[in-house]
Amino acid sequence: MRAGSAGEFRRSFGDGLVKYLARRVIRAIFLLIGVSALCFLFTEMAPGSFFDEMRANPQISPETIAGLRAQYGLDQPLAVRYGRWVKSALRADLGYSIAYNTPVAPLLWSRAKNTLLLALTAMILTWIVSVPVGLWAASWRGGWLDRGITVLSSLLIAVPEIVIAIALLASAVRWRLAPVGGMVSTSIESMSEWARLKDLAAHLELPVLILALCESAIIVRHVRASGLEVLNASYVRAARGLGITRVRLLFRHVLPAAANPAISLFGFSLGGLVSGSLLVEVICGWPGLGPLVLDATLSRDLYVVMGGIMFSALFMAGGNLVADILLMLCDPRIRTGGEHAN
Amino acid sequence: MRISGKLGMGTRLKAAALAASLLVLHLAILCAGFISPYDPAIQNRDFPYAPPTRLHFNDAAGFHLRPFVYAWTPAGESYQEDLAVAYPVRFFVRGDPYSFLGLFETNLHLFGVDDPQKIFVLGTDAFGRDVFSRVLWGGQISVAAGVVATAVTLLVGTLIGVIAGYFGGWADEALMGTSELFLALPWLYFLLGVRAFLPLHVSPARTFLLLTCVIGLISWARPARIVRGVVLSARTRNYVAAARGFGGSHLYILRRHILPEAFGVLLTQAALLIPRSIAAEAALSFFGLGVSEPAPSWGNMLGELRQYSVLISYGWLLAPAAALFVTSVMYSLLADALHSRLESR
Q1: What is the ipTM of this complex?
Q2: Which of B114, B147, B270, B285 is the most buried (most CB within 10 A)?
């Protein structure tokens, strides 16, 4: 890049960027359309509905239920319902919750804020810890530290999240290591600002730890693998021969070259911000999107469930998009739209 | 298989140990009725949350080879033993009737104690049901869910991968585009959604079947892409071109030359997918959306622990989590072994 003239740089950069971005955005939109269409197909196949319980109640007449069905548009054919839903989604309503009697989107957003708080904290912690750990393990290849880290990360990847979460929860509850359940203490009203913040942080500890443990195992493994590849390169050996310090070698010379897989993973992390913590939220009683969607599932409040799915799909698509853009900014092969673009 | 000659003694021993422990695990789960002393659904309302029954080898008279338990009465978190009355553990006893693998009815159990005494190796749950028996029987459901879901995934994945890789063109583009969609699905949310659209109260057998199919169908994308890659490279081989030249049909070439190449990859994928499907089923059942009571599965047994008071007091209810742990680790070791043996040629 540095060798080319400024005009050439702009041309290749601009063209590649626009084309590449356009393709990725279109893909993201297709993803969202696909997911919503799939969901609607499933609603069509569902035999039960929210009004089943009302139907069992003799005090509510069939006419009332039919009226309600018509009011919520549930008596319309699939295509009409889908069209209406898309319109509502474009107005940022995402349909109407029958159980809560409000548009879905604000309902979701009030819970998604908690989910994002939890997931973002976990993600920051994960990345701050696992990149250095992965590189460190790679640079001590075969040593006891490396072997320990490898075994631990394999174990964390192999064991289902539900087991890790329950085990940590059990130890936290038994030995009173951290408060569990909800995101604030019951005495929150009487606390000062600072005490509230500390209370929130204490409630974050356990779910963040569970999430970070599960995710960092994967990242450590990938960073280690790509670090190993780069560490074999001759320029790294040359740098080492010049007597460069290990820290400078790893972070200045190895990390940038080993960054590509990590950046893709970063996109996955971003994409999973909303959806990745469902299980942990339910297990730890964190009032995020997960418990809301779970309750909606149990009470058959379909549009809330769909909203939850769409919300997490939106983040998925957005995360992948961000990862693609980051990759493009970091990798000239993609930037110039060469054969390696995919 | 070429590599097996080069394998060191240690590697072989490890492989044998892994195979043996996997076999033991699955045999134990398969023969749940025989090994478990009680019926998993039978309640003992007098003994809710009874802790694991203590086995003894020593009494006043000294050491006994045959273990025994003392008569006991529940007392809060622990229980009181009556040292005067001992019940020896007997083997091959008659007890609750069960169907052995669906083949024949029997009431023979591996071990038990004389009535009225009960032996709860892993304690009991809220209804006084034997946790040990439930873990074994639950294992049947959980592992079956994993295997069936994986079979569905691999079947669909292979079919789509072969079509995309072998025939190429627009079919390839369309299928791989769809697979990207499925790869980017927030799968647990989607699973919840799918479950929301399925009937809530249907027979356990139907729920089980629906669930496993859905879990299986959701994850076809990765194996499909892997199979596609294998097929793409196999298609260019000279012997495939030769077979084409001799007039071999597509079906013949696929069966004879191309699918065998994908065998190792599929086996590794199976070892990876089975524990993940088991975990997916466990998560759904944990939420109360999967296998429903009174049928046990590892997931719905863990569901009881959603009350923190239960979680603090009755540690033995974590047994299904331990079972999940052991199963997942074994399968992951198997996947590693298969990967290094079948794929890195």
Answers
A1: 0.85
A2: B285
